[in-house]
Write a structure and sequence with these properties.
The complex is a heterodimer.
Chain A: E1 2-3, H1 27-32, E2 49-55, E3 61-67, H2 69-73, E4 77-82, E5 104-105, E6 111-117, H3 120-127, E7 131-136, H4 143-146, E8 163-165, H5 168-174, E9 177-185, E10 197-203, E11 206-211, H6 216-227, E12 234-237, H7 253-265, E13 269-272, H8 278-281, E14 288-296, E15 302-313, E16 334-343, H9 357-375, H10 379-385, H11 405-416, E17 429-430, E18 433-445, E19 451-457, E20 463-466, H12 476-488, E21 495-498, H13 515-537, E22 546-548, E23 551-554, E24 557-560, H14 561-565, E25 570-578, H15 581-584, E26 588-600, E27 606-616, H16 623-642, E28 648-649, E29 654-655, E30 673-678, H17 702-714, H18 725-734
Parallel strand pairs in A: 1-25, 2-13, 11-12, 15-16, 20-21, 27-30
Antiparallel strand pairs in A: 2-6, 3-5, 3-7, 4-6, 8-16, 9-14, 10-11, 10-13, 14-15, 17-18, 18-26, 19-20, 19-25, 22-23, 23-24, 26-27, 28-29
Chain B: E1 5-8, H1 12-21, E2 25-28, H2 34-39, E3 47-50, E4 59-61, E5 67-70, H3 75-80, H4 82-87, H5 89-96, H6 101-106, H7 109-114, H8 165-171, E6 175-179, E7 185-189, H9 190-193, E8 212-218, E9 225-231, E10 242-248, E11 254-259, H10 269-273, H11 279-286, H12 298-317
Helix pairs in contact in B: 5-8, 11-12
The chains are: A alpha+beta, B alpha+beta.
Pfam family, one (chain B): FAD_binding_5
InterPro entries (chain B): CO_DH_flav_C (IPR005107), CO_DH_flav_C_dom_sf (IPR036683), Diverse_Substr_Oxidored (IPR051312), FAD-bd_PCMH (IPR016166), FAD-bd_PCMH-like_sf (IPR036318), FAD-bd_PCMH_sub1 (IPR016167), FAD-bd_PCMH_sub2 (IPR016169), Mopterin_DH_FAD-bd (IPR002346)
Keywords (chain B): FAD, Flavoprotein
Chain lengths: 735, 318
């Protein structure tokens, strides 16, 4: 099914099942421990041996020699894989550095060997016996130093690296009120709960990978390219994934090493990366340096808006697209954005939850707070004043498909009690705390991706939906069941959903908050095909047929689906693909974040007291799972604002604090009341579901609201994340 | 983790004797620190002596009205002990500010005292560390040292001791009791128990090889108002950026000990003597000789501010 015209009334609009806050159908399996994860497939791959990765101890250079004899002779060791014996390997299109390094080394903790043994302990112990002699090369590890040599990337997610509209320089120079500030965000680690893990087994030349992965179809292609085997010989299975946040969009070392280890050992092998290996071996969100210039009239009307971004990556890598939202979020006749990419020899930068906006808004929305103060306009009103209903780089010819930023700001402010905010900083005291409130807009692009599904009804009338869609803790199983139930006029409990297997039709997968909308739209397409076939078999006209109560009803007849499907059942497959509606309309999701913080007046410790948000993201398919996504994202926003930082040691070229004792993410005690409001909205240009993404929107702007609340509490303006207590007290000492 | 042999000790003296007989041996109790270090091969014992079954898990009153805390008393139990909460509140508060409930359930009194630094370079076997591998250098000196020590440091090590409990025990003038291989016992004032790094940061305590901690003895209660203020980067499950333990008595008397500043809990007579002169005077005295780096310079300011807060809250209470 091609979606190239705005959706009209369709069966989803009944909203009898879709849109209901039903519990996650995989919930009982998760809490009972019966949902098997990639490292636990004893059922499917018995007798698996254990692999342990050996990572590079240097960031840049070459291997002079690698001596595996002692490791091979260690108790229980079955095989040691290195570049020397791994065979001829290709490289996937989506990883920048090779997944098995050597002789040249591209980054710290790049995999250089895999030790396979009978037990985990034996493998881990023997891994320490692999002796590698390095020739250490010179590397570039300092973004601030490298930014001068940064260059324009070919494109940023298919659009130009730089954009210009009107006369930015002239308008900014003439503006009555100017903000010109630099902001920095550090490298971030995904820190998902389940580490990268894969169990691999070969049957002849056929490879099966049970792998913790967000994108099954991509991974089949990537592993085939890397191993130089046919995609038909690769099956990837991931029914349950314990979080990803972008870390598992791609095939990583665990999958390749498990496959190589299984081939070398002649039996199934499983590999999980140790937590301390993940930050330097896998991908991370790259650090940014950002410059924002806002030129406005005295009343806050933006005339000129400019956003420049620098980030670094390995040669051939990509830029953090942190200026993208600035192209569309606010009005302003004169505009510019710029992305520059520096070459760094740090571990590979890549997507992490809401790539671009997550850190772009940490800068832009603080700059907006600064503008509000400079113009003496309420920060909520400033944002409303600069709302625009079309793509401001293009003009009114390209309207937003739907955009309810103003409603989010207004309703969110009311719910939060924004009117109680004292606009003058440093005025509100509660015991040892200075208390402040902050606001930020939320913005995240709406990406749609082709997505397929199979729908089958067996002879007993049981309906099964299969797709290689993943559920990374988001609720995919549940919303897919809801979609099929709505389409076929049954209950969600009547649907069996099978996900995460490359033998099923390829779906959109999970990433970029495109999964829920695109994958359910694919199920919609398959269900439309099923409706048509059922009607045909029942001798009814599908267009007139009503699917309800488990029956097809038309022309005064009511035929049970089981009967219509026949004794042999029925199976259909279709996919949704998207036409040019994303070109004809600007598509994005919107929201408003509010935060109240307490800042310890003595120690500068920041504790979030309340968070609230209002979000407009099309049809909310399941308010319960959507809310869970959003509060999780808001929690990640607390991390980005207050504590998350991979610290670069520029001498060794690596992230020093590479475990979860030292890389802080919020704990329960850091997270207070979180209030989430979804604004009623249907987006008929996004998909037949009239939904959009929502999982990442909750992160976008959350941290900036906290930064602005700190300013309101203390009068200390901080622009270098994370906003740790040492920065706060340095600011308070100056004030 | 290297392969190791294992035995279960039947008496403290036998445990100590077994340790002397096996130079590569370590005692294991809660294992909350040692097992992690073994997995990373930072600790590579060839033999483990399990002391968990020894009769060292009780808290008893001493003849002079103090408390003898068995080496195996779990942190959770110690923090909840009625007499500790009533008479040594600073200790209870320090314990509860540390780690997580699960870890406190497992971690023991002696193990907490003996836990090793959290310096990230100590934890990374591919990087230099004089504490882990003497003579390789200190990567933290010119590296990421925001969380490192500013007092009593040396050119060879700027690591901190991560314990909260030990800071409170230092404030309370506790004594560490031990047993040696020959069955003899001795009492080490806690001030002398942990060492400064000097040129041998790998030697962290006054314990002789094989010597086993059997108890920590607290002197009789001194009353007063007990404070443990831990400043940290997140609300729970984080090591102290700095911490201040204090007991305010009558007539402006007070005593102070600090965590997160040194290779051991930090306490000076001069700081205690300055109590009547106020927070700044105490800070000046406590911080005398502080040596900071670019990244941890803020700690001196943070100590001043935290002391000011502790004083301000005393005034509110008074």
């Amino acid at each position: 099914m091609k979606f190239d015209q705005p959706a009209t009334i369709n069966p989803i609009d009944r909203a009898r099942v879709v849109g209901q806050p039903i519990d996650r159908i995989d919930g009982p399996a998760k809490v009972c421990g019966t949902a098997p994860y990639a490292y636990e497939r004893h059922d499917a791959a018995p007798n698996a041996a254990y692999g342990w990765m050996v990572g590079s101890a240097i960031a840049k250079g070459t291997i002079n020699s690698i001596d595996t004899r002692a490791a091979e002779a260690a108790p229980g060791v079955l095989a040691v894989v290195t570049h020397a014996n791994a065979g001829d390997l290709g490289k996937g299109r989506m990883n920048t550095a090779t997944l098995l390094g050597g002789p040249s080394i591209e980054h710290h903790d790049q995999a250089l060997a895999l030790v396979v043994a009978e037990t985990l302990e034996q493998a881990r112990d023997a891994a320490k016996l692999v002796v590698i002699d390095y020739a250490t090369g010179e590397g570039r590890f300092d973004l601030a130093a490298a930014m001068r040599g940064a260059t324009a990337p070919k494109d940023v997610q298919g659009s130009p690296a730089d954009t210009r509209t009107g006369d930015f320089d002239g308008a900014f120079a003439k503006a009555a009120v100017k903000i010109d500030q630099r902001y920095t965000t550090p490298d971030h680690s995904h820190a998902m709960m389940e580490p990268h893990a894969t169990t691999a087994a070969w049957t002849g030349d056929k490879l099966t990978l049970w792998s913790s992965n967000q994108m099954i179809a991509w991974s089949v292609g990537e592993i085939a390219r890397t191993l130089k085997i046919k995609p038909d010989n690769v099956q990837v299975i991931a029914p349950y994934v314990g979080g990803g946040f972008g870390a598992k969009l791609f095939v990583r070392a665990d999958a390749l090493l498990a496959a190589l280890g299984a081939r070398a050992a002649g039996r199934p092998v499983k590999v999980a990366l140790a937590r301390a290996q993940i930050p330097n071996n896998t991908t991370h969100r790259p650090a940014t340096i950002q410059r924002i210039r806002l030129g406005a009239k005295k009343d806050g009307t933006i005339e000129a808006i400019g956003h420049e971004v620098w980030s670094g990556d390995l040669p051939g890598g990509g830029v953090e697209v942190a200026a993208l939202q600035t192209r569309q979020l606010y009005a302003g006749k004169h505009r510019m954005t710029k992305h520059r990419l520096a070459v760094l020899d740090l571990p590979e930068g890549n997507a992490m939850r809401a790539p671009g906006e997550a850190v772009g808004l940490l800068a832009l929305e603080v700059a907006m707070d600064e503008l509000a103060e400079a113009c003496d306009v309420d920060p909520v009103e400033l944002r409303i004043k600069n709302d625009v209903q079309y793509d401001p780089e293009v003009g009114p010819s390209k309207p937003f498909s739907s955009r309810k930023l103003v409603e989010c700001l207004r309703e969110g402010a009311t719910r939060f009690g924004w009117d109680k905010r004292n606009p003058k900083p440093g005025q509100v005291r509660d015991g040892q705390y200075l208390v402040g409130m902050g606001v930020a807009s939320a913005f995240r692009g709406n990406i749609v991706m082709k997505s397929g599904a199979r729908v089958a009804i067996d002879g007993k009338g049981r309906i099964t939906v299969s797709s290689d869609m993943t559920d990374i803790g988001t609720g995919s199983y549940t919303i897919i069941a809801q979609t099929a139930a709505e389409m076929l006029g049954v209950e969600a409990s009547d649907i069996t959903v099978r996900l995460g297997d490359s033998s099923f039709p390829a779906s959109a997968g999970s990433g970029g908050q495109w999964g829920a909308n695109s994958a359910t739209a694919g199920v919609y397409a398959a269900c439309m095909a099923m409706r048509s076939q059922l009607a045909q078999k029942a001798g009814l006209n599908a267009e007139d047929a009503l699917f309800e109560d488990g029956m097809i009803k038309a022309a005064g007849k009511a035929i049970p689906l089981r009967e219509a499907a026949g004794r042999d059942g029925l199976s259909v497959e279709d996919s949704i693909s998207f036409g040019d509606l994303t070109d004809r309309y600007a598509q994005a999701t919107f929201g408003a974040h509010f935060a109240e913080v307490g800042v310890d007046v003595y120690t500068g410790e920041v504790r979030v007291r309340r968070m609230g948000g209002a979000f407009a993201a099309g049809r909310i398919l399941n308010p319960k799972t959507a809310r869970s996504q959003v509060i999780g994202a808001m929690t990640m926003g607390v991390g980005a604002a207050l504590m998350e930082e991979l610290v670069v040691d520029t001498r060794f070229g690596y992230f020093v604090n590479h475990d979860m004792a030292e890389y802080h993410v919020p704990v329960h005690a850091d997270i207070p009341e979180q209030d989430v409001l979804f604004i009623d909205e249907l987006d008929d240009k996004s998909s037949p579901m009239k939904a959009k993404g929502v999982g990442e929107l909750g992160l976008c702007g959350a941290g900036a609201a906290i930064a602005n609340a700190i300013y309101n509490a203390t009068g200390v303006r901080l622009r270098d994340y994370p906003l740790t207590l040492n920065k706060v007290i340095a600011g308070m000492a100056k004030a | 983790m290297k392969a190791f042999t294992y035995e279960r000790a039947t008496s403290p003296a036998k445990a100590a004797a077994a340790a002397v007989a096996n130079p590569g041996a370590r005692f294991i109790a809660g294992g909350t620190n040692l097992l992690d270090l073994m997995k990373l091969q930072i600790e590579t014992p060839t033999h483990l002596i399990d002391v968990n079954r020894l009769d060292l898990d009780t808290v008893r009153e001493t003849s002079d009205g103090g408390l003898r805390i068995g080496a195996l008393v779990r942190n959770t139990d110690l923090a909840a002990h009625k007499k500790v909460r009533r008479d040594y509140a600073v200790l209870s508060r320090a314990l509860l500010s540390g780690a997580s409930g699960q870890l406190r359930n497992k971690a023991t009194t002696a193990g907490n005292l003996l836990q090793r630094t959290r310096c990230p370079y100590f934890y990374d076997t591919t990087k230099p560390c004089n504490k882990r591998r003497p003579g390789t250098g200190c990567a933290a000196l010119a590296g990421f040292n925001r969380n490192m020590a500013i007092l009593g440091t040396s050119a060879d090590c700027i690591a901190t001791h991560p314990s909260d409990m030990a800071v409170a025990m230092r404030l309370l003038d506790a004594t560490v009791e031990t047993v040696a291989a020959d069955g003899s016992s001795r009492a080490i004032p806690i001030a002398d128990f942990h060492r400064l790094p000097g040129t041998t940061p790998d030697i962290e305590t006054a314990l002789a090889p094989g010597e086993l901690v059997t108890a920590v003895v607290l002197p009789r209660p001194i009353g007063g108002s007990h404070v443990y203020r831990k400043v940290r980067d997140r609300a729970s499950y984080a090591f102290a950026v700095i911490s201040v333990a204090a007991i305010f008595g009558k007539d402006s008397n007070a005593r102070f000990a600090f965590g997160g500043l040194a290779h051991k809990p930090w306490r000076t007579e001069a700081a205690d003597a300055a109590a009547a002169a106020g927070a700044n005077a105490v800070a000046d005295a406590a911080l005398a000789g502080a040596k900071t780096t670019e990244h941890n310079r803020f700690k001196t300011d943070l100590v001043r501010r935290t002391l000011a807060q502790v004083y301000a809250q005393q005034e509110i209470r008074a």
